[in-house]
Amino acid sequence: MPVEDTEGHAIHVHLDRLLEARGMTLAELATRVGVTNVNLSILKNGRAKAIRFTTLTNICRVLQCQPGDLISYHPDHDVQRERRGGAL
After folding, report:
1. pLDDT in tens, 19-44
2. What is the pTM of this model?
3. Could you give the domains of the chain?
């Protein structure tokens, strides 16, 4: 998979931190949210290209958090990519 496919955004996912804070496993969250363990793992590892609002809603409901607790935007990543000549 090309680097752009896995690093083409400035969004960071904090699922591991939230799971640890709540003493929950990825498998337990997957069951409670109604998605596969693999899909949550892809999200957790920052390889997801998209997330459905229904999935985001269910994750926030189960983890009792806000979307901003789960994901954050780091604009410095966009600046670095622009300097390398990548598309924005």
Report:
1. 999 999 999 999 999 999 999 999 99
2. 0.77
3. 3-83 (1.10.260.40)
